[in-house]
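Input record (Table S2, row 272):
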Amino acid sequence: MTPLIDRLRRRGWRMTPQRRVIAEAMTGEHVHMTADEVLRHAREVLPEVSRATVYNTLNEMVSIGELLEITHADGRKRYDPNVADHHHHLLCVECGRMLDVHVDDPALTADQQHGFHILGVEVTFRARCPECASAA
Amino acid sequence: MTPLIDRLRRRGWRMTPQRRVIAEAMTGEHVHMTADEVLRHAREVLPEVSRATVYNTLNEMVSIGELLEITHADGRKRYDPNVADHHHHLLCVECGRMLDVHVDDPALTADQQHGFHILGVEVTFRARCPECASAA
DNA sequence: CCTTAGATTAGACTCAGTCCAAGGTGAGAT
DNA sequence: ATCTCACCTTGGACTGAGTCTAATCTAAGG
Ligand SMILES: [Mn+2]
Ligand SMILES: [Mn+2]
Ligand SMILES: [Zn+2]
Ligand SMILES: [Zn+2]
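Output record (manganese (II) ion complex):
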């Protein structure tokens, strides 16, 4: 898997310091940051990055398929760089931590499809993580 | 299944016209309205209902388990009165229409649980409905 | 009827996310 | 190496869903 930054350059993106630091934050499995978390990470390296640029960059990466956008129950969106490896999620409902999990996609029987054309399926396991369980 | 209104009264809720009209809107399968849709329905019967009361009532019904809250990708929450019958969802990504579907819950193998205590699982089929498919 | 705990209300407020117009800059062309 | 401009970044105004509050109202038990 080529690094995200190389793939972006190959698509003709101008490689600015802002985009570089955002792309570097968005790497790995089990990475599911909110826009504000990405902004904080980016500012540790490049303190003057603006919120608008983080939103611009994340949205563009989502629209070209280099990031997945996950809508969390708390309303804020999360961004997931793990697009190469189809997966689902395990979510701690207390602290919001989210892990990638691999499980077979469920399928709908014909009569349950109601004539819809299925595009994909999302599975989220709601759970309590070991840290939150022991804190309770 | 006793009607929602009776269950609410039995819990000691004061039965006001506002609550009655909101509870009447929240009945049936395949019902997944936003707060604003509930408000519009309520105002057709009782024009002076306030937005605050709709939000108060929906949130209270969710917290006592008489409604499910579904966070849609567009950010707005949907409210689902079908709590008696465990089910999952089939969502048209174009028009947002959402149907109840019945499919076996997927399960995580022990090594995929990462030590989490699983509370439940949500499955959403992303799809295009027949109306949106023919419009395209 | 009275009474009052609980319900309703308008509008101010919060917070994530979008939009805009002005100024800045990466990188291809010379 | 410098020029150029299409593209990028920025602060701040704006939007829209949802929450909060303080004043007013009312369902229902005695
Ligand atoms: Mn993931
Ligand atoms: Mn449903
Ligand atoms: Zn946790
Ligand atoms: Zn549709």
